[in-house]
Amino acid sequence: MLPLFITTTATFILGVSMLMVLRRLTTVFHLVDRPDSVRKQHKGAVPLCGGIAIFSAFAIATFAVRRPDELGLNFWLGLLVILLMGVVDDRRPLPAFGRLIMQITMAIALVGGADIGSLSVGVLFSGESQFFLPLFFFIGVLFVAGLVNSWNMIDGVDGLAGGVASVTLIWLIVVAGLAQMPELILSLQTLLVCLCAFLVFNMRSPWRSRASIFLGDAGSTALGATIAYVILLLATQSVEVSFPALVWIVILPVADTLSLIVRRLLARRSPMSADRWHLHHLLLDQGLTPAATTGTLMVVSAVCGAIGYAGIRANIPGEVMAIGLLVPIALHTMFVMAISGNLSKVWLHRKRLSLSGASATSFDLMGNVSFSTRAAEPVAKDVTSP
């Protein structure tokens, strides 16, 4: 117990020290985030060194205390690529297509480091693993690249990306304990301590009114890549842990990303475009404080993680857990529609179409009102508002 306390304390101090040093360096090199009064509504220039500090401390602690090959060479190379790409993107935004190509390349490297043919998906896929290898490889690459972008997208409120990541890491540690993978537990605990050191500077509290350091694209994408890789390791190295059950642990950012992509496509916009349609933005617009928004979504993430863990403990088939994922996705969709006013507008729009008579009042999905003295007829309106 005492050695664990000492190493944990030393790792935490290392993480804080890295943050203090890098905060000064990033200011010198203009690696800062400035408000734009539209999406970025923070005050002043905030250093974007959180991700660099977290994973620098994580690497130093890992290499200094134990063998560095527990996560595999592919992981460290992929992590280095995603961090460097994130730093460049923080300094000068890269084209969305170029970022996607690099993320897919990194995902291929990470999936190549896992025994993806042993991916535990469900009973229906438990036969000849080599037959399903191309499918599993595609799922792995899509999952890694998707989670990289998901974590980048939820990084919009003080403490949110790091807070949800900390909740996720705790559940992954618990699952790793169930799967009897002590080496992975030590790595995850080290990363969690480094992340907690960052949250001291990033999460709002009675002692901190706003974040003084941001993750940056380097940090958010690296967290997504690491969590995705750990999930693949757990789902390929333990037959007791199914991949769909583990997806429950990260379903909140996944569902929010899928929702954003669909709404942006319906609005005839690029899925990679920036806006304030994220779930956390909608909560903020409803009057929640940044701290309350972060706390609420952390609790939701913890509950979803508990469902995934319960499914693993109860040996629920992967197919059942996969179908069950439709529930949080549907709840997220309904909540987003309701909170943005679209649910009531759709109902009013449909009700208008069913009316007939001398006059009718029609509502479109944009919330506009039109009056007609004729029988109600479908009116051509823009129905792509989020």
Automatic annotation (TrEMBL):
Membrane-traversing stretches: 12-32, 44-65, 71-88, 100-125, 131-148, 160-178, 184-201, 213-234, 246-266, 287-310, 322-343
Alphabetized UniProt keyword annotations: Cell membrane, Magnesium, Membrane, Metal-binding, Transferase, Transmembrane, Transmembrane helix
Membrane topology category: Multi-pass membrane protein
Keyword Metal-binding among UniProt keywords: yes
Binding locations of Mg(2+): 152, 217
Main location group: membrane
GO molecular function: metal ion binding; phosphotransferase activity, for other substituted phosphate groups
Compartments where located: Cell membrane
Entry cofactors: Mg(2+)
Pfam families: Glycos_transf_4
InterPro entries attached to this UniProt entry: Glycosyl_transferase_4, PNAcMuramoyl-5peptid_Trfase_CS
Keyword match Hydrolase: no
Cellular component GO terms held in the UniProt record: plasma membrane
UniProt record, GO biological process: cell wall macromolecule biosynthetic process; cell wall organization; lipopolysaccharide biosynthetic process
Full protein name: Undecaprenyl/decaprenyl-phosphate alpha-N-acetylglucosaminyl 1-phosphate transferase
